[in-house]
Request: fold
Amino acid sequence: MASDALRQYKAKRDFSVTSEPAARSQASAGALSFVIQKHWAGRLHYDFRLEFDGTMKSWAVPKGPSLDTKDKRMAVQVEDHPIAYSSFEGTIPAGQYGAGKVIIWDSGTWRPVGDAARDYLAGQLKFELHGQKLHGKWVLVRMKGKGEKQPPWLLIKEKDEFVRPAAEFSVVDEMPDSVTTSSQPTRKPGRKAATAAGSKAAAKKTGIRRTQTGLPTGATKAPMPAFLAPQLATLADSPPSDSQAWAYEIKFDGYRVMTRVDGADVRLFTRNGNDWTTKLVPLQKAIAGAKLPGLVRRRDGHAQRKRRARFRRPAAVLRRGEDERHRSLSVRHSLLRGSRSARGSAARTPRAPAKLAREIVFGACAF
Reply:
């Protein structure tokens, strides 16, 4: 039965080219498994898969899951995948179906709430997830379509203790990385420590050993990556108990932008991989004129705020691609509010509401 269900999966792939698992499935010995794979194909999306009836029933979720019960996330059902696919992480080669990078964003087990076979056919499958990121009650609801080859469903979080409002927390933004250790960089053992005095001092201070070239021990030459996900904090219920072993810093809300410098090609990306080069042309030109080496560098631009002040249209300033640091606070408020009077340095603007009276500081750092 699983073999017939995987016919479409096999027809779309050339297993002599792609490293994706061939259509061989073996059911889990214990609890049913689930996996969510973050997939940079034509567009970034999240592949949600449930082990069911000998295969991984699969849905493509463009925006990824949300912990807010008010969010109804579109989930387009795609072909069944083999159970072995739940451990796949890598890059599907160009020219192959779904070409692009795949990471295991979350994995674990799931338990149906009710009769899974009956509820799946009825188009309302309720279940509990026990993953590394997602937990609790969820439901998949099939929409009334018009005979589409890929039926549309909705993925919805149900009310329980794991619910969080979208305005407070986005699980896909705050926890963007793979849950496996195989995707993390590793160092090769057995390398000699750097002999230069400066390298020794740096190694003692940071714990990272470097060679005479200044590169970390074990670093190897590799092609320039198309995109690198920035390091983010991991959500925790409480501060670390050993305060001496941790460093602390304030997290400012705002836009994080990374710069990819490959020779003369300079491009700016958001942390989710969106190309913002055309929105920040002056910054792109300034970096290009700095004659940087062909390295990946990061520039963080943060909009500082206190309490929970909201800036209604920060994207309006970004679309202009201008450095507004020299302007007065009131003028910058006008820019964020879309005021046309902000063009001149002597422009007069009405007093901003107290919740908006916060100075925005655009800072940048590169390393």
The first helix runs from residue 2 to 5. The first strand starts at residue 32 and ends at 40.
